[in-house]
Amino acid sequence: MIRLGIIGTSSIAHAFATAAKASGQFEIKAVYSRNQFTAQSFGEGYGADIFVTDLEKFTALEEVDAIYIASPNSLHFQQAMSAIANGKHLIVEKPIFSNTKEWEAAFSAAKANNVFLLERQRLASGDQDLLLDQVDSRDHFRYRMFYLDAGVHFDEVILAVAIDDEVERNEIEKCAG
Fold first, then answer.
1. Which residues, in sequence order, are CB contacts of 62 under 8 Å at separation 6+?
2. Under a CB-based contact definition with an 8 Å cutoff, are residues 81 and 20 in contact?
3. In order of start, what are the domains of the chain with their CATH numbers?
């Protein structure tokens, strides 16, 4: 079970938290927000018991293996770099960063810290095969997509890994502790 911290309390963060919990692969452990009440209100519904308003303290939490970033796009890079520096695996809401310079810096840092850097995507049906071909052809990136698949009904959100490889899942869990 991967112990997850969440940055952000928006509706997309709610959708992801619901899917993560339903997957059985994640325990939602902590929530970061600029406001303590907002963090606690969001997190308690998902079983979180740690609520933090200081980014550096949040990304350093020993109780968290991976962090999902669902903050405004302009904050993704700073928050990701803090998490990477603290050895946290990341799932970052799309778009992952503002430009390729940020991506290259974050990728280099993730590689140096031996953490996974993932971009969360919601794919339309049928796009998965195309995406997998694109990701597989860029083997120099340690990059995997997570996506939310709403299936037939939007309220039946399921968390899935675009590359459903048991070895890869075990590797993430092993790195997580």
1. none
2. no
3. 2-176 (3.40.50.720)
Rounded distance between C-alpha atoms, residue 166 and residue 170, angstroms: 6
Per-residue pLDDT, averaged over 143-165, amounts to 33
Beta bridge partners of 51: 31
Structure tokens at 151: 């299936």
More confident site: 66 or 151 = 66
Q: How many CB atoms lie within 10 A of CB 43?
A: 24
Interhelix angle 36-44/11-23, rounded to 10 degrees, is: 40
Selection from 61, 123, 120, 80 nearest residue 43 by Cα? 61
At residue 89, φ and ψ (nearest 5 deg) are: -70, 150
| Residues 6 or more apart in contact with residue 156 via CB below 8 angstroms | 150
Instruction: Give the span between the Cα atoms of 26 and 23, in whole angstroms.
Output: 7
Tokens representing 50 are 């740690």
Tell me the whole-structure pTM to 2 decimals. 0.72
What gap in Å lies between CA 42 and CA 38, rounded to an integer?
6
123-138 pLDDT, tens digit per residue, is 444 444 444 444 444 3
Helix (H) / strand (E) containing 51: strand 50-52
pLDDT in tens, 27-54: 999 999 999 999 999 999 999 999 999 9
